[in-house]
């Protein structure tokens, strides 16, 4: 009896492996993911080519400037939210914060090269690096 139960269990397992599984079309998913990757590369390359055009560079200038001072803009955003100054709908709040951040970044970058908090972090890290290098020189 025990041998028959083992044989029946093994044959049941064999039929389980023969039937279609949820992963039986894995090659289709692989081809789809490869084609999606190819499409993503095309989109990124098109974006790189568009940015090199003078007109697009001028249109995207506020976003470029905002990208150089992310720490400052994010900190300002958190302060504005914490203060409760904006009591409008989320869509209006998004538009106000986005436009004000882009304008601030554009105006700031006309006169200075980096945001105020970015400048502060750079100064602190530069001083820390000089102190670290001096202490290493003293130990030698």
TrEMBL record:
Residues 10-121 form the DUF418 domain. InterPro entries: DUF418. The chain crosses the membrane at residues 33-51, 63-85, 91-108. The keyword Membrane applies. Keywords: Membrane, Transmembrane, Transmembrane helix. Pfam families: DUF418. This is DUF418 domain-containing protein. It comes from Pseudonocardia yunnanensis.
């Amino acid at each position: 009896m025990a041998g028959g139960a083992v044989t029946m269990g093994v044959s049941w397992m064999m039929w389980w492996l023969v039937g279609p599984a949820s992963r039986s079309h894995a090659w289709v998913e692989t081809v789809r993911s490869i084609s999606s990757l190819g499409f993503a590369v095309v989109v990124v390359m098109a974006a790189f080519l568009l940015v090199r055009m003078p007109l697009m560079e001028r249109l995207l200038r506020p976003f470029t400037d905002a990208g150089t001072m992310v720490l400052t803009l994010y900190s300002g955003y958190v302060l504005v939210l914490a203060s409760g100054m904006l009591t409008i709908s989320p869509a209006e709040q998004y538009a106000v914060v986005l436009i004000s951040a882009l304008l601030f970044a554009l105006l700031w970058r006309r006169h200075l090269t980096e945001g105020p908090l970015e400048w502060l972090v750079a100064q602190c890290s530069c001083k820390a690096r000089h102190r670290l290098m001096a202490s290493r020189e003293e130990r030698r």
